[in-house]
Description:
The protein has 412 residues and is of the alpha+beta class. The chain has 3 domains: 1-152, Beta Polymerase, domain 2 (2-Layer Sandwich); 154-236, Orthogonal Bundle (Hydrophobic Seed Protein), CATH 1.10.110.30; 239-381, cca-adding enzyme, domain 2 (Orthogonal Bundle). 45% of the residues lie in helices and 9% in strands. It contains 20 helices and 11 strands. The strands form 4 sheets. Strands 1-2-5-4-3 form a 5-stranded mixed β-sheet. Helix 8 (170-182) crosses helix 11 (222-231) and helix 16 packs across helix 17. The longest helix is centred in the middle third of the chain and has 18 residues, at 249-266. It is globular, with a radius of gyration of 23 Å. Residues 397-412 have low confidence and may be disordered.
Amino acid sequence: MIPEMTVNPQVVELLARLHQAGHEAYIVGGAVRDLLLNLPPKDYDIATSATPGQVRQVFRRQARIIGRRFRLVHVRYGPNIYEVSTYRREPTAEERIGQEGDDGVVIWRDNQYGNREQDAARRDFTVNAIFYNPLKDGEIIDCVGGMADLEEGMVRAIGSPEVRLAEDPVRILRALKLVAQYDFSLEEELEKIVRDQGARIELASQARLYEELLKIFAKPYAVKTLAVCREFDFLRHFLPRINEVWDEPDGLLMRRLAAARDRRKSRGSYWKSRRLALATVALPTALESLGIADPSEFRQVPEDCGRTVRKAIRDLFHPLPLPKFLTHDTKDVILLLPRFFDPSQKERVSRHPQYRWAHELFSLCAEALDWPPELLAEWPPADDGPSPPRRRPQPRRRQRRPRGKDGHASNH
Ligand code: ATP
Ligand code: MG
């Protein structure tokens, strides 16, 4: 059903090597969903009967075992990394009540190896639990009715939606992402739980929710995903501040900018654009924090405003724990914008590590807010290559650099 050549040849080779060593191995999750829907997969997840040690034996120096709680293997092919995980099963009732303070509902530990059927059953939704082997005449293993649901465009929990969403509330967000991305519907009982139990997300690990947020921004459906979250009365629990501003002028601006980014992203731009994505969403709020009501008045950077903008960014995404370096870089992207009105600074500004994202943000402002696009013609184009290496944290005394007029370190 899926022509073999549409699967990444590295993945085909990876599976073949596991098979040759006598192990079962399948593509699972989002990649199978996308391939069956005739869409290019974003990345590939692989499930195997081999233990991490056995995977390591097959791939040797190409493989790295990661994770302390549940060990996965990252298999590297040049710049590409594929995640290979051993079949897992859900913990039994006794295993669940193994921890102090555990209520026996939420799954804190999910680290028991299992077989293929058990691995399908521990997954969240039927459309995410289809196993595909491109090597054996396109073998599809569908233990949970995922194919029928995929055809119907239905998000259905595996097992009782009430139980499955209670044991891991992150699944609420994952269900809504499927609705936003593919225009799927929620199965009736699942929809009821999603609408009634949204507050449960407050119990979920913020670090995992942050990971899901990054995945939302990695795709061109960011605005739609947030809009669907709002439609299901979930945004107020997930990102309360964004929910509050949604219908305010700031929120409208945010949506216009982010929609422009999504449009460009759907055309294939912006490899690794977390900073740009966050800056796009945070720009209106950041300007408000600086007392700038109309974005077209953002022609100068007020003095000592770095901290204010960082706080505005953090607050907007509260309670998700954005790492410091990301808030810092996002703030830089935003504060570089007014520099584009003065091409005499071209030399210095275009060497800034965030220059290309600021260039893109300006271009988005030109598209969404009618900023003068001709100004950009004077500036070097922003390349879309790999991100510059992350700066290492500097020892404190070296961080004290002379301050420029705008309150930034002078090399900004
Ligand atoms: P994407 O296209 O965004 O990568 P995905 O479905 O592949 O979508 P991943 O986060 O890559 O999402 O997860 C891979 C697979 O792992 C899922 O398809 C699903 O089978 C399983 N999975 C992920 N998160 C959960 C969860 N919270 N509960 C149960 N199964 C999960
Ligand atoms: Mg995936």
